[in-house]
Every structure is written in C-alpha cells, then in structure tokens.
Write a structure and sequence with these properties.
The complex is a heterodimer. Chain A is mainly alpha-helical. Chain A starts with a helix and ends with a helix. Chain A has six helices and one strand; from the N terminus they run H-E-H-H-H-H-H. The longest helix of chain A is centred in the N-terminal third of the chain and has 35 residues, at 14-48. Chain B is α/β, with parallel strands linked by helices. Chain B has two domains: 19-155, Rossmann fold, CATH 3.40.50; 166-331, 2-Layer Sandwich (Alpha-Beta Plaits). Chain B is built from twelve helices and eleven strands. Chain B has helices at residues 27-39, 50-59, 76-85, 103-112, 124-155, 166-183, 197-204, 206-221, 248-263, 288-293, 296-312, 323-332; strands at 9-10, 19-23, 43-47, 64-67, 93-98, 116-119, 187-194, 230-233, 238-244, 278-285, 318-320. In chain B, the strands form two sheets. In chain B, strands 3-2-4-5-6 form a five-stranded parallel β-sheet, with helices on both faces. Classes of the chains: A mainly alpha, B alpha/beta.
C-alpha cells in the first residue's frame, strides 16, 4: 500500500505537459480571432442601440465572461483581466439600463479589442502568443 | 495559470481509481482541464451543462465534480444543490472553478454546496492540489461509509453462524407482521432447537458445537426462499425462521425440509461426523382476525409452544399449530413442561 502510494506520486514532466497543451492552446489562440470579430460586431450593435442598449450589454457581458474564463484557463492573464473588466462594466451598465454610451464599457471594450488586435498581429508574425504556446 | 518551466507538476494518481467530471460550457476549457487531469492520473468525464452532468452522473457516478458557475440552462450553483440532494448514496466532492472571484461569490458558491472554490487563472499546481484534497476526502468518506455499513451489518448479525441476531429478529419481525396485516397476507414462523445440544458441547467440545450451529444455518438456509425468508439465531442453539406470505401448511413443509436437511447427513466436525437432529415448532397467522389480534410476542410464544410439543413428543420432529390452539394447549399443559425442553 505504502509503496503503491509512493509510486503513484510521480511527476508529469514539463515536456509532456507542453506537448499535451501546445495544440489546445494553438486552437484557443485561433479562436481569439473569432472572439475579436464577435466583439467588433457587438461594438457595432451597441453603437446602433440608441433606444435600448441593455440586451447588447447583456450579450457583451456573456461574451466577456466566456472569453475571460477561457483566457484564464489558457494562461493569458492580460486578456482574462481585460475581459473581466469588460464583464463587470457591462453587468453594471445592464443593471442600471445605461444608454449605449457607457464610458466604462466602451473603455474596456476598446482596450480588449486593441489587445486582441495586437495579439492577432503578433500571432500572424508568429511572435509572442503563438510562441508562448510552445 | 501555468508555470511549469522547471518544476514538474505533481501527479497524483489515485491509489484506487478516482473519477473526476469537468463541467464547463466552453469546449476548449473542458478539453484542457480534462487533459490535465488525465495526465495527473485521474479518470475524467466531461459535460457542457448542469443538466448533462446530472444525466451522465446518473449513469456513471464520479468522486469529484469540477464545475463552472455560469452555464446555459442549469448553472453550477443549481448543479451543486442537485448533487447535495443525492448525497445519501455517495458523496460527490464539488470544486467550483469560475471567474467569479468576489468574497460574496465564494460564499454563495460554498453555500450552494460546493466543497471548494477556485478562481479561474489559478496555477495548475493549485488546481491539482485541490483536486487531490477532494480525492482524499472522498476516499475517507467512502471508507467511513463502508465501515458504517459493516458495523450496521455486524450489529444485527450473529458472528458465528451469519444468521440475523436477536436484535434483528425483534426489530424486523414486527415489521413483517405489520406488512402482513396491511396486505392481509399470511405470516409463518418456525422455532427451531437443536436436540441435545448440551450433550454435543459437553461430549465433543465447543468447537464441534459451533460447527453444528454453522452447519444448521447452512442447511436450513438452503431450504428457504432467497431474499424473502430469513433466519435469526434467537438463543444458544435456538433459531427462528421467518416465512412471509406463507400459510401453516407451507410452513410445515419447510420445517420438514429443514429437519431432513439436518438429519439426512451427519455433520462433519473437528470431533468427527455427528448425527444431529432438530425439533421445530411451526405456527402461522392466516386469518384477518389472527393478524389483527396476535402480537409478535404471542406469535413467538405460540411457535415455542409447538416446539415444546415436539420436544415432549420425542424430539426430531416438527409440530404445527395455529397460535390460539398452541396457547390453549400450553395453558392446559402441566406446570414445568417448558423446563422439560432440550
């Protein structure tokens, strides 16, 4: 029993870990591109929502929540943090039924899209984010 | 979340297989967590919502559930609450893994029934360490449950023969009687006493006596319906056989089967083969009146009266009587007749 216990507490070599998750992380980074497009669509919808912006804020919050959770799991903390800020801002705006010009939402939205744009450029050049997957 | 540059991630393969379910509506998150846990030695299943998790768990239970909070349909909180309603059968350790990191969120999560709470973005080592805590706790809970069940079984079982003990008899015979009353179905009991048992013990030793008791139990059990009839050791060499849904005629047949099963072949003991006989008293409640008016104590007493009759008639036989007749016969018997038994 004791020896089994000891034997079972072996270690996952970092190389095996990297190998296992490199592909998944690559898929996630590719998905970030479609998330960026989706955020752009939501931005446009928000800009057009002059009478009732609450449903758009709700969609933005859900999108940001989804993105933030996955980014955290895939160890991209800057995306996770900005997504979290956007989620919080959109939630607050939805609660108070803010108009479509809520500055906190727009600020967070733009920061996140900018970051994703930057990452997209880097990924296209095979730099930081794609490299960090290896 | 991950920093595995130089230090390896501790792999915690369960000594016994440990199943973990990952519940998250994000496909890539599910895939990543599942891969990580498999690498760490866990068996993993996945679900994309609370409803799917419950459905899968209904078919294949698991020890640990790692669940997201926000999911379409049934969310993580509702899943926690639903799992807690199932704790009677088996405890499921729930780790909530979510982006909600406020103190109040943590309280809400734990209040819904989560055992642990981790914010997405925590290091992999921390996630695995917490899952390992879950594995430890579920293993302890399992061992506690098994021990409790074993203790319950032992508390109502005679350790020598494996028959139910007197405590079980006095707890479950009233229930059998209640059931018979409710459905107006007959209930029979046999009171069995191994003949000259004192002589066996004195002449061949207690070990041989114990072997006789064990063989009686084995042979008598082979004459009964599985999962319906049952035997309790009510005293030293005395056994009560309970036969639900059985009238006196049927019970009489069973009594004869048991008697012949014992006397048909000598019992192999450490002192050599021993020929052993048994006397049996048989009684049954059949009519609505009997069922309504005769108590458990009176029923047992009636079976004993029949047993005494078998003894007094020369042993190695069974005597059958309806309870009221047995009672009236005993009242007519000379004082001290009971002491002549054995």
């Amino acid at each position: 029993m004791k020896s089994t216990e000891r034997a079972s507490c072996t270690a996952i070599p970092a190389a095996a870990y990297d190998e296992q998750f490199q592909e998944l992380r690559g898929v996630f980074c590719a998905r970030l591109r479609s998330d960026r497009r989706r955020l752009a669509v939501l931005s446009a919808e928000l800009a057009r929502a002059e009478t009732n912006a609450t449903p758009v804020y709700t969609d933005i919050r859900a999108m940001a929540h989804h993105l933030g959770g996955a980014a955290a799991v895939f160890e991209i903390p800057d995306v996770a943090e900005l997504a979290y800020s956007l989620e919080q801002a959109a939630r607050a705006a939805a609660i108070v039924h803010a108009d479509n010009a809520d500055p906190a939402v727009w600020s967070a939205l733009e920061s996140l899209v900018d970051l994703l744009n930057a990452m997209n450029g880097e990924m296209a050049n095979g730099e930081r984010y794609a490299q960090s997957a290896a | 979340m991950i920093d595995v540059n130089d230090s390896a991630i501790v792999r915690v393969a369960a000594v016994a297989p440990c199943n973990v379910m990952v519940v998250d509506d994000d496909e890539l998150t599910r895939a990543k967590l599942a891969s990580l846990l498999r690498l760490a030695g866990y068996e993993v299943q996945v679900a994309s919502s609370g409803e799917e998790a419950l459905r899968v768990l209904g078919v294949r239970p698991c020890h640990i559930v790692i669940t997201d909070w926000e999911m379409p349909g049934m969310n993580g909180l509702a899943l926690c609450r639903a799992l807690r309603l199932r704790d009677g059968e088996r405890y499921t350790y729930v780790l909530m893994l979510t982006v909600h990191g406020d103190k109040n969120d943590i309280l809400v999560g734990l209040g819904a029934g989560a055992d642990d709470y981790l914010v997405k973005g925590a290091q992999v080592e921390e996630l695995l360490a917490r899952v390992e805590v879950g594995r430890r706790i579920t293993r302890l809970e399992h061992s506690l449950r098994v021990t409790g069940e074993e203790n319950r079984r032992l508390s109502v079982t005679d350790p020598l023969t494996g028959a139910q003990n007197r405590r079980f008899l006095m707890k479950y015979l009233p229930r059998e009687l209640e059931r018979s009353r409710r459905y107006e179905h007959p209930l029979a009991i046999l009171s069995c006493d191994i003949d000259d048992f004192k002589r066996i013990n004195d002449g061949f030793g207690h070990e041989a006596g114990d072997e006789v008791l064990q063989h009686f139990m084995t042979r008598a059990s082979s004459c009964l319906r599985e999962a319906i009839d049952w035997i309790a050791r009510s005293g030293g060499e005395e056994f009560v056989v309970v036969l639900p849904e059985t009238k006196l005629v049927g019970a009489s047949c069973v009594a004869e089967k048991i008697r012949l099963a014992l006397t048909g072949q000598p019992i192999p003991t450490s002192a050599g083969p021993l020929s052993v006989t048994v006397s049996i008293g048989v009684t049954a409640l059949e009519t609505v009146h009997e069922l309504a008016t005769i108590s458990v104590v009176e029923l047992l007493r009636a079976a004993d009266h029949c047993l005494y009759a078998s003894k007094n008639l020369g042993r190695d036989r069974s005597t059958c009587m309806r309870p009221e007749l047995a009672a009236s016969m005993l009242s007519a018997a000379p004082a001290g007749a009971r002491n002549e038994v054995n």
